[in-house]
Structure formats: C-alpha cells, structure tokens
Specification:
Length: 214
C-alpha cells in the first residue's frame, strides 16, 4: 500500500467518524422521542463502530510494517492494540493542538486511551445484547434517565480524534484534523524529517482529486 493509498483510506475513515458522531448527537438530543433504552443502543452501536474504526486506522497508518498484514482479518480492537503495541509503542493516536507556533500534546485532557478502547468496545457489545434474561429483567425496571456515560465516552473520543498525531517512525509523523477551516473536510499533514534536519510536509485532504495530495 502506497502512502497516497494509506492516506486516502485513513481520511475516508475520518469522514465516517464524523458521520457517526452526528448520529450520536442526534440520538442523544432525541428530538424524535425514542425510548431511553433505544437511545442508549443507538449511541453504543456507534461507539462500537468507532472503536473498530480507530483500530483499523492504526493498521492503515502503519500498513508499511509487514507484521501488520497478519492482522488484516482481525476485527477485535483488543487484539489489534496488543499486537500493534509490540510492533510500535507509539502507534496509537495522541490528541494534539496544531497551531502556527507548533504542535502541542494534549494527552493531559481526558481522551479515549488505548487501554480504554477495548474496554469500551466490550461495554458496547454488552449494551447491544438483550440476553441473558437477568439483564432483560434488570433493564426493564423503571428508573431515572441518565445518559452521562454516553456524554463522557463521546467527549473522550472527540478529544482523541478532533486533532491527533500518530508517530509513523523516528523520521515521520502524521497530524490529522477532522475539520479543516474553509472546507469542513478531514485533512492530514505528513511531516518527514531528513537526517540533515530538513523537514518536508505533504498535505492530504479527503475531498481533493489525485488522492487529495498537495
């Protein structure tokens, strides 16, 4: 997979993430008056997909590592995370703030960590199952409507992905934004530093022709 192909696929995933965020927001607002349990199911279905998309994005970003090819048939984020961490400890996205002055880490902010990702994926699966019977009996009891967990998980995922950095190698980093000012499209900067210290920046946008490269 060439770098252009990797970036095309990665930015397509970022656009999908934005749509799934919108689904969560609409369900959470619940203008249609769905039952609370159904709102929860809709949101956690999106969270489960988002966990898988994040893990898939890591595989695509590091697709030039031969050992990742064996994971292409794996869908469980936990398995992907464990294998990727052995291959490259810095494989996971890091929330950042990119400005004209530089790139600043924001890992101090609450965000979906690589330890929480498989946990959320498992929680989401549990929410989406009606069985066993003890769960059904418990969830049908009347009680207060509380969506605070949905808001917390949603905020963590957004903080992670809105503007994030992935270390591809010692010489190469990828900075990704979900919304570019003026286009509202996902975009990415590939920053490559040569041995002599000279940096090269390649820009990719999700809606451009020629793989969005500029």
């Amino acid at each position: 997979m060439t770098e252009d192909e990797k970036m095309t696929y990665y930015l397509l995933l970022m656009e999908e993430i934005k749509v799934r965020f919108d689904v969560v927001n609409r369900a959470y607002g619940n203008a249609d008056g769905f039952p609370p349990a159904m709102v929860r199911e809709i949101c956690y279905l999106q969270f489960r997909f988002l966990c898988e998309i994040i893990a898939l994005g890591c595989l695509i970003a590091h697709g030039d590592i031969t050992e990742t090819h064996a994971l292409r048939g794996t869908y469980e984020p936990g398995k992907i995370i464990k294998k990727m961490e052995r291959l490259n400890p810095d494989f996971y996205p890091e929330p950042v703030e990119a400005t004209s002055s530089g790139i600043f880490g924001r890992s101090n902010l609450p965000h979906l960590t690589k330890q929480e990702l498989p946990k959320l994926w498992a929680i989401s699966g549990d929410v989406l199952h009606r069985t066993p019977m003890v769960k059904f009996l418990e969830t049908t009891k009347p009680g207060p409507v509380d969506f605070s967990d949905i808001m917390e998980w949603g905020d963590k995922i957004r903080t992670l992905l809105n503007s994030h950095l992935i270390t591809l190698s010692h010489e190469k980093r990828m900075v990704v934004g979900l919304v570019e000012r003026g286009t509202n499209k996902a975009f990415a900067y590939i920053i490559t530093r040569s041995p002599d210290g000279i940096g090269k920046v390649t820009i990719y946008r999700s809606d451009d022709g020629d793989n969005g490269k500029s």
